Amino acid sequence: MSKLGIDIGSTTVKLVVLDDENKVQYSRYERHMSNVFEKVEELIKDMYQELGDISLRPVITGSGGLSLAKLIDVRFEQEVISCSRAVEALIPETDVAIELGGEDAKITFYGATVEQRMNGTCAGGTGAFIDQMAILLNTDAAGLNEAAKDYKVIYPIAARCGVFAKTDIQPLINDGADKADLAASIFQAVVNQTISGLACGHPIKGKVAFLGGPLSFLSELRKRFIETLELPDEDVIFPEDSKFFVAIGAAMLAEKQAEVTLAEIVKRMDEADKEQLSESKHIEPLFRDLHEYRDFKARHDKAKIKRRDLSKATGRVYLGIDAGSTTTKATLIDEEKNLLYSFYRSNEGNPIEAVRSMLYELYDQLPNTAYIANVCATGYGENLIKAAFKADMGEIETMAHYKAAEEFLPGVDFILDIGGQDMKCLKIKDGAIYNIMLNEACSSGCGSFLETYAKSVNMDTKAFAKEALLAENPVDLGTRCTVFMNSKVKQAQKEGATIGDISAGLSYSVIKNALYKVIKLRNTDETGNKIVVQGGTFMNNAVLRSIEQIIGKEVVRPDIAGLMGAYGCALIARNHYVKGTRSSILSREDLGRFSVEHVNGRCKRCENQCILTINKFSNGTRYITGNRCEKGAGGNLH
What we know:
By secondary structure, the protein is α/β, with parallel strands linked by helices. The chain is built from 22 helices and 25 strands. The strands form six sheets. Strands 1, 2, 3, 4, 5 and 11 form a six-stranded mixed sheet that branches. The chain has a five-stranded mixed sheet with strand order 8-7-6-9-10. It has a five-stranded mixed sheet with strand order 15-14-13-16-17. Strand 23 (about 595-600) and strand 24 form a beta hairpin. Helix 3 (about 80-90) packs across helix 10 and helix 19 (about 500-520) packs across helix 20 (about 540-550).
């Protein structure tokens, strides 16, 4: 009697028919693009056409299979049980099985008991992560695999979060790193994430089996695992049908199920009400009507900074520079704290060039009647900017953001700053910051989260946000990893959700992720009474409205929300001005002579063997990045 195993994963459907001796008679492997019902129906009908109306015993398994199994009245089995059944029957010598899927990763340890570790809230190190990285290099997973065959150097790349990984890769692309090296580095990042994130110190030794789609199709990914784990050839198990193992196990578990004909399964699919598979939930709209939106906008338009024409400036002016992870911001203020000039630009992997462009632009507009008296820098690139352009002082960015927020709302006690890839929450009491929370390994509550989806529907972020404002049925997308949420968005679109419904749902998700995953709020009282929200993400009115809806309180969003770090620095520069001095920042003439040379190499002064980038400036100074200990700060390469 034939047995049918259907494995419905997060991104693919695998279908296997076994004969009485558990030999594969028929198999199919295809992506379902979130159209699970339609894809399974198509594959069943194709099988019916090819095999005829045979009798078989079916079992469905996989992360996306339970709902369908109930709908067509077929037995469902957990995938860990299905996979273990196939491993025990076909490769019983296995000690450890590493299985990668579209949105999941699993390590199963076999012994006296079976112990399985799998990813939970993060898709780092899965097939979807590889797909995202491939798009960044204008190829696909197969293209990455081909390129990786010729690698020479492996760069450290974050695998914990796809968005953070992009930040690591983009500067390497800008610096002309070889595609082969980048491809191998991406695969190594997946290996590092799987071993460190799942094994968590449990030794992976003995006979190791590699299962699942990515490990079946990507030979170079397998190679990176084998080299990292230092596995001898005799301990590597790569079965012929590794991508079908869960489906094969499900078919093996179908031995005691009732027989059913293929025609009957086709009939059940035809008669099933697939609307019952609808998973999308909806939440309240951001605004009930246009009138409510106009009132909201009028209230927030009041939080405006005082401005003055730069051409009329006289005397001392103060410059604040915020060199962030993805953008460079700058503000110039006068003695009365009027904003004279502002600058906001993407780094494009080169913060030095962004600051140089800003200074040229500023010098072109600065009248002879004014001079830069003091300069303060902050952000990821603070020390780099101080070394390159001789900025007078630096300040940690939390203090810069607090000073700016205090200027807009005296007595502020809660500040939430959401940028492109980072998020900060500051709690203040009696004029002092007493608690700071940052996102570390996840960017799902950050601005790039929205930007990614806007690009996927060929819209800029502003237009995407505008769609959300009057959306009638926002989709509840929960608090999940950016990669995982792709599936939910596709499901919602299939069920008729508009772009506005999805945009509004994502705006809610950004705030829920920030408040409940990063800040871990227990109740909204913890947000204080005087709340300032800032960072470029809050220039999106849908996100701004979302936080007010979720915490049930009104907040202040300054009109320079994306420049608050730079504005805080300008205020600090003004407050720390020493009478009778001028800034040491490079002059217009010095900028003309300014140059920087980048030298890369590996430091071998300790076991870290960091890849150093030494920036040598024309004024004789230099700045070193990439070192994880003080030994690399000298810049001696070996």
